[in-house]
Amino acid sequence: MFRVSLGKSPGCSRVCVIKLVKLLDGKRSQTVGILISSLHLDMKDIQQAVLTVDNSVVDLETIEALYENRATNDELEKIKKHHESTKQDEVKLLDKPEQFLYELSQIPDFSGRAHCIIFQTVFQDGISSIRRKVEIVSTVCKGLLECDGVKDVIGLVLAFGNYMNGGNRTRGQADGFGLEILPKLKDVKSRDSRISLVDYVVSYYLRNMDKHAGSDKSVFPLPEPQDFFLAAQVKFEDLFKDVRKLKKDLTVCDRNVQRVCGDSLEEHLQPFKDKMEAFVATAKLEHAAEDERLQAAQKRFQDMVNFFGLRPKSGEKEVAPGYVFMLWYEFCNDFKTTWKRESKIISKERLKEAQQTVQKMTAEKRVETKKINANSLKERLRQKEASVSSS
Known about the structure:
By secondary structure, the chain is mainly α. The chain has 13 helices and 2 strands; from the N terminus they run ββααααααααααααα. A two-stranded antiparallel ribbon has the order 1-2. Strand 1 (2-9) and strand 2 form a beta hairpin. The relative contact order is 0.09. InterPro entries: FH2_Formin, FH2_Formin_sf, Formin_Cappuccino_subfam. This is FH2 domain-containing protein.
């Protein structure tokens, strides 16, 4: 690439041709050029942000873009060789992308510092994602094991199932049932096909076991269907893999912090040292705590599996959360749909009953009349006023 510069000297014209040196291939140069045009930042701002771990001027997304597009070792070697082979006043001969990558490399340990800054967010996002998944599994398992509503509903399903199979000696006196039948209860219909077994269970529960049915105090007796759906997406092997990876990456970050601090000049040491060492210390504690919660959640899940007597699907060694929780999700989804509808019906019935009670009380109310005492003071005054008026 050539840049033409026109200059004038006394009595003559001079044309200066400056050749811009391109060391990057076309595609790479274009990529860096696009990055430069999108930044709208001075290199001093970037350096300040990296050295002080401050994202107020240069946001994390920009630092990530700079880190991902930093010069490779080969590119940097070519650029440095060019600098060493040119005079100091000819540095401008580099094309913009090459010059930008060179200036970026001059930030003290840009790569190590940027990696640590980026990992802070990566770690927080990762540990938060693990925590959400662990919490949803723990919450759902706790609800299934400890919620009285779950026991009541399961008891009704067992009781009605035994009643329906009353004439069958092998199936009519069951002590329990497999959870795999739960999603199928909606397909068990009455003779006229107007209601399903799920509808009947919900209706019976609300009308006989929920004293607050039809009011704002009525509480859905099972864990929320959406919680089951989210819990069904969890795979313990993936969570343990994520925990191990975070630990490995945290160890790398810790080493980077130590190396950067060890190589830094005194003027560039703070506040990077204090901020990053505090982050690493806190991250280690958070990681250890989440690892413990994950193991506890897996144990609670296994306790729930054992409690309900669940067995692995054919061809699988263990019962997977996806299998168990999807059974519950389908059943709870059907149950809640009916529960909402039946609750509205009961609410209207109770409102109507209350209105009828008020109407009955009003109709039965009688006006009481008292016999007037002709000799009372009030009656004598009334008669006197009447006589005066008539005269």
